[in-house]
Specification:
The protein is of the alpha/beta class. It is built from eight helices and ten strands. The strands form three sheets. Strands 1, 4, 5, 6, 7 and 10 form a six-stranded parallel sheet that branches. It has a two-stranded parallel sheet with strand order 2-3. Strand 5, helix 4 and strand 6 form a beta-alpha-beta unit.
Length: about 280
Amino acid sequence: MDDERGAVRSARAGVSSAPPHRAPLPRSRPPIGEPPVHGSASPWILMYHSVAVEKEDPYRLTVSPERFAEQIAWLHRRGLRGVSVRELMRARALGRDDGLVGLTFDDGYADFARYAVPILQAYGFTATAYVVADLLGRDNDWDTEGPRKQLLTVQEVTELAAAGWEIGSHGLGHQALPGLPAEALAVQAGESRRLLEEAVGGPVAGFCYPYGAVDLPAALAVRDAGYDYACAIGHSPLTGRFALPRCYVGARDGAWRLRAKRGRQRLRDAVTELRHARREPRP
């Protein structure tokens, strides 16, 4: 089975301690207005990047339209409905997220609108596209060894948002956040949100950490910038509303592998919750 760390060129970032002047990120306290939910399992969120036809794919970012259609059809046959993370979190707050799976597309490739959207619409699914706010209309020049892929334009982002697709922030410059000074983190989170809110004409609720790399200062900066949630990739001590784990989906993932990946996430949820419980102070 593919290792998702290879698929996202992961910048492995350790979880650092909170700076002395910052409050620790709450893990067990639910956000205002969100009732407690039974259990602690994370919502199942699938992570895509590009849906296109590529001869070279060194970072394993691309799923062909045909393969993508097969994967979406499998979800539909299983009685699952793909939704944006915004919709998933709202449903989860109301205890109505049974049968929902989050669908995310990182980097904001233009092929999302060309190939992914029509397939999703055919099943009544929605999704979230995480875009790099200052690179709209350009290409993925951060991927030095991969093919050049066109990114969504400002107009395309505006049209997608108007049609009901969630647009989330993927920061500025596709830069990994761990290790950046506090001022730079505030710009990454706050300025990217401001630019996107101007484009979509409304609030931007979600953030997605470039390369999936997150540490405590980054999570705090995203929370303080006013986002409602943030997506990471793997499980970690920060797993929660501002570091939601996701399941990488690639070109090799058929029905059997998708079932296995769903089971693996449930196992990792159980391990993560056990670790959290061990850290909780005893009464």
